[in-house]
Write a structure and sequence with these properties.
By secondary structure, the chain is of the alpha+beta class. Helices cover 29% and strands 36% of the residues. α2 packs antiparallel against α5.
Length: 187
Amino acid sequence: MKKILSIILAVILGVIATSVLACSFIPKQFNINLTAPDLIKVWNSEDQQGAYLQGSEEYDEIMALYNESFKTTILSALFYGKAFATSSIVDGYQNISTSSLLNADDDLFIEFWYDTVQTVQFEGAEYEEEFDNKYVSIMVEVLDFSSLTQFKAYVRYGEAGTATYSYYRYLTYGIQENLYEYVQSLI
């Protein structure tokens, strides 16, 4: 009987170890897969701090760190309590003039600016609701956290400096500490 219990226990431990090992390699997807912008603007404390054209060294580094911030595994997401969390789109009007978003010294955003009109995409398809889903820029919140943290990306309608608003907001998760530090070094 002891031998059978030992074998059962060994099998259970083997299954658990294999599952943990597999979860440490299986990626967890939080990237909202925005189209690469034509220009990236950096915003801090209501002021535009810089603008970087596609192909510049700063642009390339921001995009690399932005995309890297989404890379995690199921095991890592499990440790942060986000194993079953998903990215989403939230509907609802929100004023996102720069003064309403950037109201503290540590608020930091990157704005993805497009030369051509974009449509809101979610999970590989066009997001169609009753409100206009066209935009020319998205304001992406950048947070100084070394853990998997929720942040927002505001679909921005209207021109910069005007009374702009967002009806759709992406809610997703990332580890943005490296992106935050790099963007902060550009200010």
